[in-house]
Every structure is written in C-alpha cells, then in structure tokens.
Design a protein that fits this description.
With 257 residues, the protein is an alpha/beta fold. The chain has one domain: NAD(P)-binding Rossmann-like Domain (Rossmann fold, 3-Layer(aba) Sandwich), CATH 3.40.50.720. Helices cover 41% and strands 16% of the residues. The chain contains seven helices and eight strands, in the order E-H-E-E-H-E-H-E-H-E-H-H-H-E-E. It has an eight-stranded mixed sheet, with helices on both faces. Helix 1 packs across helix 7 and helix 3 runs parallel beside helix 4. The longest helix has 33 residues. The chain binds nicotinamide-adenine-dinucleotide. Nicotinamide-adenine-dinucleotide binds next to helix 1, helix 3 and helix 5.
C-alpha cells in the first residue's frame, strides 16, 4: 500500500517521455491509470488508453467520461501533453498561425480542456489533484538568468499562460479539496529535447540532463502530501541541482488564507 493506492490518475501525453514515466510510476504506486496521447504507443501503458488529440474538446469529454464510466472517479490529472518547435516574430505569417494552433492549443488549450473536464468530476468526488507541467523557462533556477528565450515565443507564451490556470484553479477549487500545482523542470532526456537539440547534442550534455523518472519521483511526493498538502505552487527542478519538492514558489501571487 502507498498513499496513492487505488487512486484514479489521468495522464495526458503518456506515450513517451515524461508522460510515460508519470503513468508508469503512478501505476507502480497502485493507481489506476487513464492515459491519452496522439501516438499509438500510448496503448503500451497499463490501463485505460486513448489515441486522441488533447486540443479537441471531444477528446477531453471522451477520456474523462470514459474514466468515470470505468472507475467512477478521477483523483489525479497530470496535464503533461506538450509540443515545442522553433518559432518567432520574424516567421512567415501562415507558419505562425499553424504553429499557434499546434503549440498553444496543445500546451494551453489541452490543459484547459482536461482541467475543466476533470475538475467537475473531482468536485463531485470531494477532492483531487491537478498537476500542470510547465518549464524552467517560466521558473528558472534562482539566481540564474532566464533561458530558453528568443527562439520559442509560442512555447513560452503557452507555458506562462498555464500559470494563470494553476493559480486561479488553486484558489477556486480549494473549497472543494482540490489541490492544483505545477512542476517546472529543466532539460530532461526525452524525444522532445533530443529533437530540439539535434546535432548539437554531446555526451556531456546528455549526462547533465535530468531523467523523466526523477520528475516522476517528485510528482509522487507532491501527490502523497494528501489533502492538506501544498496548492497553488510552482515546483522547480533544475539541471545540476538535486531535485527537491521544497524548491517551490507561489504560482504568481500568494493564495488568500
Ligand atoms: N524534456 C524536457 O526537457 C522538458 C523540459 C520542460 C518541460 N517539458 C514539458 O514536459 C512535457 C512532456 O514533454 P517530453 O519532453 O516528455 O516530450 P515528448 O515529445 O517526449 O512527449 C510528449 C508527448 O505528448 C504527446 N502529444 C503532443 N501533442 C499532443 C496532442 N495534441 N494530443 C495528444 N498528445 C500529444 C506526444 O505524442 C508525446 O507522446 C511537455 O509539456 C513539455 O513541454 C519538457
């Protein structure tokens, strides 16, 4: 038995990378997993799995309604599905529009859709946990200059905007026993990072990266705090520093009370 045994956990973007690590670790902790991804490999996750696009409102409804039909509740939502590609204000106009639909709609609209759909179920349950996945571009290592900027305006805008969801939901859902936090990790070994770095990757660089399992461990610690645990917080995980749940700050402002 663990603190999470029997809880129903919905993970978006669970076919690979961080999402796969979250789903696998939560399964190990005794959770019943519901997973969605637009890649077929999501079916390798043990649990109820869906191949679908998180940008689509019908996806959120289908997955959340399916989770409730099978398990009767949702206790945990991890809004992890995300995409990045090089973008900036000098881009071709149509490329910018297409990138917006791909990046902002996946990272932000997907989190909005799943958060809203799952929150309604959690309110009925009388509690739950929502964890949004950000980036260290939003919450950099204290004392270090912001980085990851100047080449990905849409990715950064989408991740900054998630702060608004984290803070606002933490406040409005507190009375329902629902905690809402975000994890902002730095470079973590995944297909996303390897594709982004391309030919610039070196063995030394890869050795410095964090692993998805390290973030999954912090996720479990966060969820295991129980109903009186932290809410409205951004948790930072940074390359070169031992990951710790105590590296956190309020998501934009102090919560009332
Ligand atoms: N890897 C890093 O260094 C790093 C750092 C900071 C934040 N993050 C964030 O962590 C999250 C996971 O990233 P990752 O590194 O594991 O990337 P990844 O590309 O390895 O995995 C992302 C998963 O999300 C899925 N996905 C993307 N768009 C989708 C959509 N519209 N609908 C359904 N599924 C979709 C992909 O198919 C993929 O399986 C992302 O939100 C990312 O922004 C990653």
């Amino acid at each position: 038995m663990t603190a999470l045994t029997g809880q129903v956990a919905l993970v978006t973007g669970a076919a690979q990378g961080l999402g796969r690590a979250f789903a696998n670790r939560l399964h190990t902790e005794g959770c019943k997993i519901v997973a969605v991804d637009r890649r077929e490999a999501v079916h390798d996750v043990v649990g109820l799995t869906y191949v679908a696009d998180v940008r689509d409102p019908d996806t959120a409804r289908t997955v959340v309604d399916g989770a409730v039909a099978k398990h009767g509740r949702i206790d945990i939502l991890v809004n992890n599905a995300g995409v990045v590609s090089p973008t900036g204000p000098a881009d071709d106009w149509q490329k910018g529009l297409d990138d917006y639909d791909e990046i902002v709609d996946t990272n932000l609209r997907g989190s909005f859709l799943f958060g809203r759909a799952a929150a309604a179920v959690m309110i009925e349950n009388g509690g739950g946990n929502i964890v949004n996945i950000g980036t260290d571009h939003v919450f950099p290592l204290p004392g270090v200059d912001v980085h990851g900027h100047g080449a990905m305006d849409l990715y950064n805008a989408s991740k900054w905007a998630i702060n608004g969801l984290t803070l606002d939901w933490a406040i409005s859902l507190k009375e329902h026993g629902i905690r809402v936090n975000a994890i902002h990790m730095g470079a973590t070994d995944s297909e996303m990072l390897r594709t982004w770095m391309g030919d610039a990757i070196t063995d030394e660089m890869v050795a410095s990266w964090m692993s998805p399992d390290q973030t999954a461990e912090i996720l479990v610690q966060l969820l295991s705090e129980g109903p009186t645990g932290r809410t409205g917080q951004n948790i930072g995980l940074w390359v070169g520093r031992e990951p710790s749940i105590s590296d956190s700050t309020h998501a934009g402002a102090r919560l009332p009370g």
